[in-house]
Amino acid sequence: MEIQKVMVIGAGQMGAGIAQVCAMNGYDVMLHDLKEEYVEKGLKGIRKQLQRQVEKDRISETDMERFMRQIHSSTRLSNAEEADIVIEAALENMEIKKNIFAQLDEFAPSHAILATNTSSLPITEIAAETKRPEKVIGMHFMNPVPVMKLVEVIRGLATSDETFNTVKSMSESLKKTPVEVNDFPGFVSNRILMPMINEAIYTVFEGVATPEDVDEVMKLGMNHPMGPLTLADFIGLDTCLYIMETLHEGFGDDKYRPCPLLRKYVKAGWLGKKSGRGFYNYS
Ligand code: CAA
């Protein structure tokens, strides 16, 4: 199946990144959010990213304007009627996602694939909201999307080979490396990453070392580009907590229990970089 028109639901950090990468690789993109101002904010971020590429002489001003023209804004889900694939990158909340997928199933043409960028929610359960579970799939991009090479492609129970192969080819056309994963809590990426971050938080909680020193150990000792606590702030502590809760509930094993310090920070509104405070201070 040939994909030309992509609709991206959610103009936040992930959605905007996905829209940018799709436009830069020749797709016609519709960037959707609930309000025009959210879409505008996403578009502004994309322009800023592209402007940096112009300054580094990687793309021309003309390319930048062409990519921007390829991204149209949307505030009506019914615009899905024009899409060959919809990539949902809305809030990590099962009820919200189910609601979006039920509506997309009504509006999108019958050939359209409905993909979700969820970081840990079950694809099979989201697919069950639609009458086309064979066309529902996980397409998990990493943050920052324009930089990170991986797309975890997650098969739900009913995902067809045709859907999988189309999404695999599309990921390659975005110059990403798709990796096939089955539908289990946290998939592969977050099943491994989040317990490491949670353990780093326990290390601070138990007074073993400061956040700076925990990060230094992992950067210098393990060659990680960012220490786990800087990364947690970058991902968002609310997202980290949500994923840990999904793992804890999904596997029922106490080794996934979120650290109380993580809960405390989230309750305090210390959500990391986006709120100005997390394990580090950004103000
Ligand atoms: N958006 C777009 N591009 C960005 C960016 C952003 N937010 N931040 C940095 N970059 C680009 C820079 O422009 C630069 O590009 P060039 O090399 O082409 O000039 C490149 O990334 C390197 O940037 P810097 O030199 O400023 O900084 P760095 O070397 O420290 O790299 C980083 C920044 C790529 C973010 C690096 O620190 C890194 O890889 N960190 C780990 C990121 C990671 O683990 N992501 C996965 C998070 S988990 C997830 O996303 C899934 C989930 O479900 C939670």
TrEMBL record:
PROSITE patterns: 3HCDH. One of its GO terms (biological process) is butyrate metabolic process. The record marks H140 as: Important for catalytic activity. NAD(+) binds at G10, A11, G12, Q13, M14, G15, D33, E92, K97, S119, N143, K274. One of its GO terms (molecular function) is NAD+ binding. The keyword Transmembrane does not apply. The keyword Oxidoreductase applies. Keywords: NAD, Oxidoreductase. Pathway: Lipid metabolism; butanoate metabolism. Residues 186-282 form the 3-hydroxyacyl-CoA dehydrogenase C-terminal domain. Signal peptide: none annotated. Residues 5-183 form the 3-hydroxyacyl-CoA dehydrogenase NAD binding domain. Belongs to the 3-hydroxyacyl-CoA dehydrogenase family. This is 3-hydroxybutyryl-CoA dehydrogenase. It comes from Salipaludibacillus aurantiacus.
